[in-house]
Backbone:
């Protein structure tokens, strides 16, 4: 089964159009949605969560059609959004009570074990939490009602590397055959660590959806002179950056003639080069 | 079982898994019928994608190094040591053919090649 299926999803605003978007997240996998600010990541996530209504296209989540499947579908989705709507005067224990009234599957025991695992105090007020603690609390809450799909919007941004790693570890443990994760981020290195699939949104369009490792296998960085580059098949060159001393080009490794050195490319370089080219 | 995955070697991750497991099988580090870790567990421990791990196991199965029992997992296939040696010999021969093909272009004699080989061998 697929955790998420988007078909022809379209949403227009005055100065921005998202889509048409086709995207599939298979069960048991993690998909990272990457793109610049304003690329349409949040709009995409919001249409999955039925926080906005698309103009056209279909959204299927865990085999159920959106929006008809709501509100019961919300039980099966854990959500961590960039801005958290938790009242500042509550402590973690009280947040648990609040969640218990919102989710019929709320599991206090699981919640307590996440609080312990993530080193969160149960009696400190939310407003006195650091950003890292706030995010960890949101994650603990999202994981404590037996959700099958987890959706995170910029959950690791603004956090120090240790907390980010802690969060990524929790996500690793969550994702098995019965679960799936969709996360958006502009911290590409986090996505590179954890995702099975990468989807690159740029100005409202999906530029690329691919298995992460295949992507990194398929493409490489060629450093050469402009004359060398001109001799290559232009369709094998996806993007280039010209500087005073030569050219750096994103190329398809398999289609390079023998003798040229093609370096491995990391996801961040790949995305930046592609974004510039489009 | 030791597996070392490098992100900077340029060798695809599934190939790294395949070749290291093959080596372990050939060297006897993994015995016939020994259970391999599940795809999900291996991916989790090595912090790599489960899709990539699955691809590596599929490749190993296709080449006859492992077999899969549905619901139980993957195991090391029983292989004929003679056949395995034969396979290695064929690979060495084809590499040597390549050397023989390239050497005249660089004006290398057989003695030069032997000397290169012994120098490389000493360095290892």
Residues:
């Amino acid at each position: 089964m697929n955790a998420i299926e988007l078909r022809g999803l379209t949403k227009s605003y005055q100065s921005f159009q998202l889509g048409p978007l086709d995207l599939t997240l298979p069960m048991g996998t993690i998909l990272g949605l990457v793109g610049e600010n304003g690329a349409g990541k949040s709009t995409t996530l919001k249409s999955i969560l039925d926080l906005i209504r698309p103009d056209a296209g279909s959204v299927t989540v865990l085999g159920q059609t959106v929006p008809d499947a709501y509100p019961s579908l919300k039980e099966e989705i854990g959500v961590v959004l960039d801005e958290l709507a938790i009242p500042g005067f509550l402590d973690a224990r009280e947040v648990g009570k609040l969640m218990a009234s919102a989710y019929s599957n709320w599991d206090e025991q699981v919640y307590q074990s996440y609080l312990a695992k993530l080193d969160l105090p149960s009696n400190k007020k939310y407003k006195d939490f650091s950003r890292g603690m706030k995010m960890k609390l949101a994650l603990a809450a999202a994981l404590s009602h037996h959700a099958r799909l987890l959706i995170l919007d910029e959950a690791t941004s603004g956090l120090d590397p240790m907390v980010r790693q802690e969060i990524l570890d929790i996500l690793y443990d969550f994702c098995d055959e019965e679960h799936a994760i969709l996360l958006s981020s502009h911290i590409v290195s986090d996505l590179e660590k954890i995702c099975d699939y990468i989807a690159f949104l740029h100005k409202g369009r999906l530029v690329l959806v691919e298995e992460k490792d295949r992507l990194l296998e398929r493409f490489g960085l060629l450093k050469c002179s402009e004359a060398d580059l001109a001799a290559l098949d232009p369709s094998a060159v996806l993007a280039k950056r010209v500087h005073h001393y030569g050219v750096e080009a994103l190329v398809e490794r398999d289609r390079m003639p023998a003798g040229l050195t093609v370096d491995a490319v990391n996801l961040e370089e790949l995305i930046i080069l592609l974004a510039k080219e489009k | 079982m030791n597996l070392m995955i490098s992100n900077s070697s340029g060798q695809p991750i599934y190939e790294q898994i395949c070749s290291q497991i093959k080596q372990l099988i050939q060297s006897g580090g993994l015995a016939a019928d020994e259970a391999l870790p599940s795809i999900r567990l291996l991916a989790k421990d090595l912090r790599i994608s489960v899709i990539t791990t699955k691809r590596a196991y599929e490749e190993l199965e296709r080449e006859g190094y492992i077999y899969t029992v549905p619901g139980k997992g993957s195991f090391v296939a029983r292989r004929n040591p003679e056949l395995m040696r034969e396979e290695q010999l064929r690979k060495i021969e084809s590499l040597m053919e390549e050397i023989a093909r390239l050497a005249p272009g660089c004006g290398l004699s057989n003695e030069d090649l032997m000397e290169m080989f012994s120098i490389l061998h000493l360095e290892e």
The mean pLDDT of chain A is 90. The first helix of chain A runs from residue 41 to 48. Chain A has two domains: 2-203, 216-277.
